[in-house]
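Colleagues,

For the teaching module next term, I've prepared a clean inverse folding example: a structure given as tokens, and then the sequence designed for it. I'd like students to try predicting residues themselves before seeing the answer, so please don't circulate the second half yet.
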């Protein structure tokens, strides 16, 4: 026999849960809209509301709204080659991720025989947080102009400045108060006294097949200039960059990305990197924050906006990326 009373109670409980869920969702949407509107007012006239205080940063700034955060991230990628290729994630704490120091060895075993085990070493990839910052100044007159989009101005200027700062660290950083660049840990695949097509083929071949599949080249402007002049025996250029810069040029079937952060062609420098850069991990520590500086530049009739963020980066698997090194 069906317990009608119990069935009705269950339906009422489900209905109440659904109503409460919708109310909670509407309340969250309202809070997001309020925060965004109050944030715009803060950038324009320095007004700090109770809603804005919820997103206060430890350095006295305020966390940017989701839409502005998305805009900054996209602007960073436009000025940062490594961010386009790396594995990027957001975290609110230091991560310690174990990785194998050497590969396990598989063996054939006799049926019913004694099991054998291969020893494996492990290391830890620690993704911490290093603070970067950028200050942009705006005249009071420009800020008061209703047609001036202060959010877009901050997004574009910070995206370029911080993007280039991060790029240098993601390539060359020593890990001291900044991310550790992939050149610090990538394995040297080829050593040559000068660039030539055979050296490029050797570098490609030095990377194991699993990492060739998603492989990409990262080179400097100087190397790009030399590669664009190199030709095969039949006269065909080995690499032709896309002059529109909408898509990367292809070298040996893999995309080529150019950055001024890569070293110049000098003995001792690793001037080309090839491999799977998804094994370079970038950990963004939460959202970016902006602090309005009302007094610092007041004598010049300007308002400053300080953009800060915490980030770290490391090559989690060194064998995934190989480099071409110039030797004397």
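(Answer key — instructors only)
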């Amino acid at each position: 026999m069906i317990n009608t009373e119990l069935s009705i109670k269950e339906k009422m409980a489900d209905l109440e849960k659904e109503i409460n869920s919708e109310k909670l969702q509407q309340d969250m949407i309202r809070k997001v809209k309020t925060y965004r509107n109050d944030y715009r007012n803060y950038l324009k006239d320095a007004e700090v509301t109770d809603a804005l205080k919820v997103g206060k940063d430890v350095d006295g700034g305020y966390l940017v709204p989701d839409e502005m955060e998305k805009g900054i991230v996209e602007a960073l990628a436009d000025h940062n080659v490594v961010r386009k290729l790396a594995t990027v994630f957001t975290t609110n704490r230091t991560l310690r991720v174990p990785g194998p120091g050497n590969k396990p060895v598989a063996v054939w075993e006799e049926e019913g025989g004694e099991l054998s085990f291969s020893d494996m070493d492990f290391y830890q990839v620690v993704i911490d947080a290093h603070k970067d910052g950028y200050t942009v100044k705006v005249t009071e007159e420009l800020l008061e102009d209703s047609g001036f989009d202060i959010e877009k101005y901050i997004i574009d200027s910070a995206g370029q400045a911080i993007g280039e700062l991060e790029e240098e660290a993601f390539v060359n950083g020593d890990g001291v108060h900044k991310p550790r660049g992939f050149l610090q840990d990538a394995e040297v695949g080829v050593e040559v006294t000068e660039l030539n097509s055979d050296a490029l083929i050797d570098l490609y071949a030095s990377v194991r097949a699993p990492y060739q599949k998603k492989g990409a080249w990262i080179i400097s402007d100087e190397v790009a200039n030399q590669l664009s002049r190199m030709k095969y025996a039949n006269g065909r250029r080995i690499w032709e960059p896309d002059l529109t810069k909408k898509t990367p040029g292809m070298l040996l079937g893999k995309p080529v990305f150019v950055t001024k952060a890569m070293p110049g062609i000098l003995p001792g420098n690793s001037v080309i990197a090839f491999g799977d850069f998804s094994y370079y991990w970038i950990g963004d520590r939460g959202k970016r924050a902006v602090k309005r500086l009302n007094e610092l530049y007041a004598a010049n009739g300007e308002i400053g906006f300080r953009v800060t963020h915490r980030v770290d980066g490391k090559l989690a698997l060194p064998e995934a990326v190989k480099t071409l090194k110039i030797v004397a």
